[in-house]
Amino acid sequence: MILRNGQQLLQLVNEMLDLSRLESGKIALRFIQGDVIAFLRYMVESFHSLAESQQKQLHFLSTLQELDCAYDPEKLRQIVSNLLSNALKFTPESGNIYLSIGHSFQNETPSLQITVKDTGIGIPEAQLPHIFDRFYQVDDSPTRPGEGAGIGLALTKELVNLLQGEIRVKSPVTGSNKGAEFTVLLPLQMAAETIAEGLPDAWAEPLARAKSTACNTPLLPNPVPAN
Questions:
Q1: Angle 209-215-221 (CA atoms, 0-180°, nearest 5)?
Q2: pLDDT at 74 over 60
Q3: 85 vs 34, 48, 116, 136, 161, CA distance in Å?
Q4: Per-residue confidence band for 202, with pLDDT thresholds at 50, 70 and 90
Q5: H helices within 58-151, ranges in order?
Q6: Which helix (H) or strand (E) holds 109?
Q7: What is 17-83 written as a DSSP string?
Q8: Is the overall model pTM greater than 0.85, yes or no?
Q9: Which SS3 state, helix, strand or coil, does residue 7 take?
């Protein structure tokens, strides 16, 4: 109990520090080139032991076998970790959590779509507009765990903004009367010479245009102010 409380306190302190750095523009983007699908699969696998210890099922689904692009592994790790941790927290025993990878267009920009969906207790509709507010916690009903300080989702949204992306939430999940679904859309920065196989034909032109812009930028620290 003491160890767990200490870990939670350390996590809270780190999240508060990250939020402070984001607000002051002191967090830089550091891209690497690689297979983002493999990275996300690894992220899900790293949560399997925790899910099994809680008697919950964690699933990884992807419409893409691989996707070579520029991405910031630390920011992506934080985003995915926060969403998976949140889903595990609010999903009961024998429940399911799904991380799905796909692609979409946002304002004519090819985007990576990451969706975390659970079969948990869901979020009251009236509270959805506040779910990303700092220190906001969904009602304290007996069915809802009391852990957390309302920082994780606020930090997640700020990190998504830093990556010039978008995050959405809906609850209950379509076709169910429970659960929650978080969707993150991140603009793709493709390798200059790569248009990955398996992507829609409609992506060819936008990705070709991108070759002369973000796709060709050096993969070095690239400060971007928080939105």
A1: 150
A2: yes
A3: 25, 11, 10, 17, 20
A4: low
A5: 73-89
A6: strand 109-118
A7: HHHHHHHTT-PEE--EEEEHHHHHHHHHHTTHHHHHHTT-EEEEEES-S--EEEE-HHHHHHHHHHH
A8: no
A9: helix
CATH hierarchy code of domain 30-191+202-214: 3.30.565.10
CB 226, CB 162: distance < 8 Å: yes
CA 152 – CA 86 distance, rounded (Å): 8
Q: Give yes or no for a contact between 196 and 68, defined as CB atoms under 8 angstroms apart.
A: yes
Q: Is it the case that residue 225 has pLDDT exceeding 60?
A: no
Alpha carbons 23 and 74: distance in angstroms, whole number? 18
Tell me what pLDDT residue 107 has: 73
Give the per-residue pLDDT at 145: 52
- List Cβ neighbours of 197 (8 Å cut-off, separation of 6 or more): none
pLDDT of residue 138: 67
Top pLDDT among 94 and 108 is at: 94
Each residue of 176-201: b (16+ CB within 10 Å) or e? eebbbbbbbbbbbbbbeeebbeebee
Answer with the residue of higher pLDDT: 151 or 170: 170
Report the C-alpha gap between 137 and 24 in whole angstroms.
25
Residues 71, 191: contact at Cβ < 8 Å? no
**For residues 218, 221, 225 and 227, what is the CA-based torsion angle, rounded to 10 degrees?**
70
- Spell out the domain ranges in the chain: 30-191+202-214
Token pair recorded at residue 205: 């032109």
Would the pLDDT of 215 be above 50? Answer: no
Residue 178 has pLDDT above 90, yes or no: no
Tokens 């070759």, located at residue: 211
